[in-house]
Design a protein that fits this description.
alpha/beta; 9 strands; 10 helices; 287 residues; 9-stranded parallel β-sheet
Amino acid sequence: MSGIFVGISGWRYPPWRGVFYPSGLPQDRELEYASRALPTIEINGTFYSLQKPESFQHWYEATPPGFIFSVKGPRYVTHVRRLRDVHGPLANFFASGLFNLREKLGPILWQFPPSFRYDPERMKLFFELLPHDTRQALSLARRREHRMTGRARLAVDATRTVRHAIEIRHESFIDESFIQMLREHNIAFVVADTAGKWPYREDVTADFLYLRLHGDKELYASGYTDEALVRWAARIRAWRTGSQPDDAHLISAQSSLQLHARDVYCYFDNDVKVRAPFDAKALMAKL
């Protein structure tokens, strides 16, 4: 069975209080509220710093059965180290508490900065390090750095698939070899709507789709019109059923499409003017 999961990137934004969140709702209950309105949320605090196992456990307990968290990989790996010598930082990330999300752990998002150019060898080495199930992730986590002692979760409750998605922001990634590499590792190419600021392509490279909608006209700010949401709904239906839109904007001329259902994860990141949760709910209604 496949599913469509439409949600938001992050949930703790002061401007949302009294607009999306009811006035007077305690801050520590915002995740509880958001997770009853939407089926998935992208955790973005993990991008800025390593979190604690207790935080992941709290997020698990605050959300209902069937809820899904996507997790944003640390910028220390993608922006600071720029994929150089990242075995230790990757181990630290997987040791930091992700396993406490148990069956609610969805895809892991790796976002690269606009200055990061496509380096085939560096990407290949990175992809080979990424675990594709929780047992592999646990094996990697056990090789954490010493500083993680006392703040790691090194146990899994079951063997589950671990999915990865890559969001690029440099034109050099518009390269057929990059798409083929993603397909070889079953890693999703992120369909990222950035109001025209960064490259936009729609190649299907994995057994799931990952979309990030950062704003239709203005990055991180503008909402999506009803017409735009109808268009996104049609594209999501096509991807979910194993096909693709007739006017798909592609890098690779070679299609690896197989006509089987896929999970589709879609996150609104146009949070500045409190559009994200409302656009997510409107798109869900159309689907």
